What does this fold into?
Amino acid sequence: MFGTLDLDRAAPFASKMCNHRYGMPVAVEPQPGWYRDGFVYGERRWMRDEERGAPGVIFRAEDAPLAEVQP
It folds into this structure.
């Protein structure tokens, strides 16, 4: 989620999007930082970039109804 480094703001929206896009109810393992779109070995990836990136938090989707977001 871009536009914030605040985990409390990012987590609820990220969990909703995980459920909507992937059918997995919870977003876990938040990784706040500055990210930009890039390529690694020809594959598109989100890359950390403190100089040119945008503030954001990357999460992983979790298929566990009782999982909690943990920083």
In short: The chain has a mean pLDDT of 86. The first strand starts at residue 26 and ends at 40. The chain is about 25% helix and 40% strand. Residues 7-22 form the longest helix (16 residues).
